[in-house]
Request: fold
Amino acid sequence: MRIAVLASGVGSNLTTILEHAQSGRLSVEPCLALSNNPEAGALLQAAKFGVPVWSKSHVGLPREEYDAELLGALYAAKAEAVILAGYMRLLSKVFFNGFSGPILNLHPSLLPAFPGAGAPQQSFAYGERLVGCSVHFVEEVVDSGPLIIQAALPVDDDDTFETLMPKIRLLEHRIYPQAIQWLAQKRLAPDCRSGCHPEACRRIRLLPRSGPAVPAPQVELPFPYLVSPGLEDF
Ligand code: GRF
Reply:
């Protein structure tokens, strides 16, 4: 599966994805990294991995016009799926109408709590006792769309926002490649057991893996966490 990764910032998630792709653990071919921020660290990371990059500032351009250019780059790269990894722009109807493949997003909260920018700060300030991150299919409403995987960790009394953020980041680096691998394996399907229409289905079901079962990896993170569906040794 040819993936294009869109990022606006430092690109730690993009880097993790590219590392897994390069090592062969992830069954994807990163064909393009795109950014609306020509200064994004993510672009430097992509270049280090030899992944072609496309960048253009969105400043002063109507959203639709900008997205039409993004689409042009995706078509030229023959991208089959779009992976949003800290892409800090809303996508327009033009984009959704023009790209027919799956689009995934990673969000640093347990959605549907705290959509939008500043989610970890908001969930900490709110006093949530469990924080975490979510990967979901992208729909037009920001940070909505059917959930694929979520990971949660407890907030200790001595935690501060600064102590929590690196933990959330470590979980992001675990769950995003996993979700992408499930997508590449075509194992994410609408679960319409309650009679809904597949197009309107909110619930995603992980189909069993073909071939021999692979035991879940013993991932040692220096804090307790819960993830669903369970991680595999992809
Ligand atoms: C992550 O926290 C992700 O959840 C959010 O943007 C951030 C990107 O971080 N969508 P990085 O650039 O991958 O380090």
The chain has six helices and ten strands. The first strand starts at residue 2 and ends at 6.
